[in-house]
Write a structure and sequence with these properties.
The complex is a heterotrimer.
Chain A: H1 2-27, H2 31-51, H3 83-113, H4 118-127
Helix pairs in contact in A: 1-2, 2-3
Chain B: H1 2-20, H2 32-35, H3 38-49, H4 54-62, H5 64-85
Helix pairs in contact in B: 3-4, 4-5
Chain C: H1 5-26, H2 30-56, E1 59-62, E2 73-76, H3 78-105, H4 110-129, H5 133-152, H6 158-187, H7 192-198, H8 206-222, H9 231-238, H10 241-266, H11 269-275, H12 278-298, H13 303-323, H14 327-358, H15 369-372, H16 374-388, H17 394-409, H18 412-436, H19 461-479, H20 481-492
Antiparallel strand pairs in C: 1-2
Helix pairs in contact in C: 1-2, 1-4, 2-3, 2-4, 3-4, 3-10, 3-14, 3-19, 3-20, 4-5, 4-10, 5-6, 5-10, 6-8, 6-9, 8-10, 9-13, 10-13, 10-14, 12-13, 12-18, 13-14, 13-18, 14-16, 14-17, 14-19, 16-18, 16-19, 17-18, 17-19
Classes of the chains: A mainly alpha, B mainly alpha, C mainly alpha.
């Protein structure tokens, strides 16, 4: 039982974080809170990927530089999996870019309606 | 709306946790993710790219196209911000 | 050089897009011609690729020379080549059409509009041509970000519509990324062909089933499948005319293409048909989407909003057709992707012309348009007939394949939905034609007040010629549909 929790708790933690962000995106009425929720959701996905690259007892994937006959065999088990880190570097950039565009849209909304609460904006929209 | 979102969040979370039950254990060095493609990167990074930092060699060489895409994403976001926030002439 | 053409399809517009702000600094008026040049070269490269695929089979292009699964590869098979030509031809037509409309609706922002326009097209091309799951996510985000920007600079109320689009679009893309993550955890590879080889022994593991569920859920949000379509009507109605003419036909169709790729090229079809009831759910989702879209379109008084709900219904046709899981229905679904893209762009360009001339896109603004803009309205009638499904327009032939497929699969509910939606389209479009010919002038009905009587004459040539070319294309695709099906679509249908 304890062994079961210890092997899977990292996935569950990040899923929980994802759901906090997801709830914030959908349920909150302030536009900035929705954007914060979006940020939490995407960050949790990034953590989720990274947690799959861990190997027990491994170190960072930077090899000792040696050429020619001095090169020695590389023990793959000693180094952490580098691929999810690379993918998530790109995903972080995408997350920040989406955040930037979302905030630009919020600035446009604020300039026009002078409020950031969704229900007030809908009321102002209905009035035309 | 809040209750609906709460229920939706719990359902999605439950589906994700259900999916995680068959996953390899945390830190397992024999998981498919650690034994299929990434050993090639670790073993051949210095021969192919002369870079000891494997993350850099994947980012800039093996999967350099993703990095080009990432640069384009940043450019798109910048252009989008200018397009959105620039005050146009009065129509 | 010839071997590099698949790469050039994405790289040429990318280079032109990076240089567009500099060109705009030099001469603002030059940006339009710069974008037209970029998209013409791109269209030439796509047509060349299509012929190369028809004569030579699937093209595999290894980026950077690294063999897959260690590097990224481009896979251009018949379906991808057809999608490339659709995207580049439609974007070229819309960019030629866009000159007057962008100058009128977005003064002072023309340079950046064309930059983001080119980036949007790059995003679409990158999605269609790639053979790597994570690379698809990167280009999906390029297309999405450009789309958010293009929608938000529209008329009053566009930023609010765009914000909802951002929230729902991000949820969709993140679910897609989660699905790819689950596939990576269970296989260790991101290459589509590699995953196809490795996965079959794991089809009963919970990770893979969850991966399918989340991939499809994310794509369903992106393709505006009823009931997560709520972002589409507001966003595409309030967007500028050139932007909605570009994005409305293409974004949903490209998400449908990704769904077909995921279900039939990454996973074996047996997963969707026997192990998980995915195809059954797809047919019922298509059924609900067709009915929902058609009925909501009836309730609209705004021309562009009505067209948006028709787009929602058309997505239902393709999802249901793909879900019927026999070869005829798949042929119909893939042919319908082509036909629907062309029909939708035809109708949205006409709506853009109405907006350019009258400043609004309400149904009542179509009054008397048949007398004042005969060519534009003729193009509208051709598009309308195609949506209803009248031969020899292209819409008839894809509907025929879908109906035939529904009969083979004995799915009578879907067949009924197809016929019912044709009837509703007749009502919808004859309502507009009635207003256009001003039959109701003396009876009240849709008469509008005197302030809106703008001086209307025929549309300017730069907007009219592309609209008429699309109308001619609708008829030509219908007449030559047999050639298209036998040369391209028969090979594009996945073996079921």
């Amino acid at each position: 039982m304890f062994e079961f929790i210890v092997s899977y708790y990292n996935y569950w933690m990040y899923i929980g974080l994802m759901m906090i962000g997801f709830y914030a995106m959908m349920a909150k009425r302030n536009l900035i809170k929705k954007i914060i929720g979006m940020n939490i959701f995407q960050s949790a996905i990034i953590f989720f990927y990274i947690s799959t690259s861990v190997k027990k007892g491994a170190t960072v994937p930077i090899l000792e530089h040696a050429h020619g006959h001095a090169a020695h065999a590389i023990d793959v088990m000693q180094y952490a999996n580098p691929l999810p880190h690379v993918l998530m570097l790109t995903a972080i950039v995408v997350m920040v870019a989406t955040l930037g565009v979302a905030l630009a849209v919020v600035i446009m909304i604020y300039r026009r309606y002078n409020t950031l609460e969704e229900d007030e904006i809908i009321m102002l929209l209905r009035r035309g | 709306m809040k209750i609906l979102s709460l229920i939706a969040g719990l359902l999605v979370g439950a589906a994700l946790i259900y999916g995680s039950l068959d996953m390899p254990k945390w830190g397992d060095p024999h998981s498919p993710a650690s034994t299929h493609v990434s050993p090639y990167y670790l073993r051949h990074s210095i021969d192919d790219t002369a870079t000891p930092n494997v993350v850099t060699s994947i980012l800039a060489d093996y999967r350099g196209y993703d990095t080009l895409g990432e640069t384009t994403v940043v450019f798109t976001a910048g252009m989008a911000a200018i397009l959105l926030l620039r005050k146009g002439r009065k129509r | 050089m010839m071997a590099q053409i698949p790469m050039l399809i994405v790289v040429i517009p990318l280079l032109f897009a990076f240089l567009t702000p500099l060109v705009g600094l030099w001469r603002k008026g030059l940006c339009y011609y710069w974008s037209v040049l970029a998209l013409s070269l791109c269209a030439l490269a796509s047509i060349d690729t299509l012929f190369a695929v028809i004569h030579g089979g699937t093209i595999h292009y290894h980026l950077g020379g690294w063999a897959p699964p260690f590097g990224i590869e481009y896979v251009v098979d018949h379906l991808s080549a057809m999608m490339l030509v659709i995207v580049s031809a439609i974007s070229l037509t819309v960019v030629i059409y866009s000159k007057r409309s962008v100058e009128k609706e977005l003064p002072g922002k023309v340079v950046y509009f064309y930059t983001v326009f080119l980036l949007q097209v790059i995003g679409f091309m990158g999605i269609v041509i790639t053979g790597d799951l994570f690379n698809l996510y990167v280009f999906l985000e390029i297309a999405s970000l450009a789309g958010y920007a293009l929608v938000a600079v529209g008329e009053d109320g566009a930023p609010v519509a765009c914000f909802r689009y951002i929230v729902m679009g991000t949820i969709g893309a993140c679910f897609y990324l989660l699905g790819v993550g689950y596939i990576y955890i269970s296989t260790g590879s991101l290459n589509m062909a590699d995953v196809y080889q490795i996965l079959p022994q794991m089809y009963h593991s919970k990770v893979v089933l969850t991966a399918v569920a989340f991939l499809l859920a994310g794509l369903a949000v992106k393709m505006a499948l009823f009931p997560v379509h709520v972002w589409l009507p507001d966003a595409y109605t309030k967007a500028p005319s050139a932007a909605s003419a570009l994005i409305a036909p293409l974004m949903t169709k490209i998400s449908l293409y990704v769904m077909i790729r995921v279900l039939f090229t990454v996973f074996k079809p047996v997963l969707s048909i026997e192990i998980l009831p995915v195809t059954d759910i797809m047919v019922w989702a298509g059924f609900v989407a067709i009915l929902g879209g058609a009925i909501m379109a009836l309730a609209q008084t705004d021309l562009k909003r009505m067209l948006c709900y028709i787009v929602v219904a058309e997505v239902g046709y393709i999802v249901g057709g793909a879900g019927l899981a026999n070869a005829t229905a798949m042929k119909g679904a893939i042919l319908h992707i082509l036909n629907d893209a062309v029909m939708t762009v035809g109708l949205f360009t006409v709506a853009g012309i109405v907006m350019y001339k009258t400043g609004r896109h309400d149904l009542s603004d179509c009054k008397d348009l048949f007398k004042k803009m005969p060519f534009t309205m003729a193009a509208f009638v051709v598009g309308a007939l195609s949506i209803i499904g009248v031969p020899p327009t292209c819409g008839f032939f894809s509907k025929w394949y879908l109906i035939h497929g529904a009969v083979i699969a004995k799915h009578w509910a879907f067949l009924a939905a197809l016929l019912f939606s044709s009837l509703i389209s007749v009502v919808l479009f004859f309502r507009v034609i009635e207003i256009g010919y001003d039959f109701q002038a003396s009876h009240g009905g849709y008469t509008h007040s005197a302030e809106h009587t703008a001086i209307i004459d025929e549309a300017p040539l730069s907007m009219l010629v592309p609209t008429i070319v699309i109308a001619i294309a609708i008829i030509l695709i219908g007449l030559y549909n047999q050639t298209i099906v036998s040369n391209i679509i028969d090979f594009a249908v996945p073996r079921l």
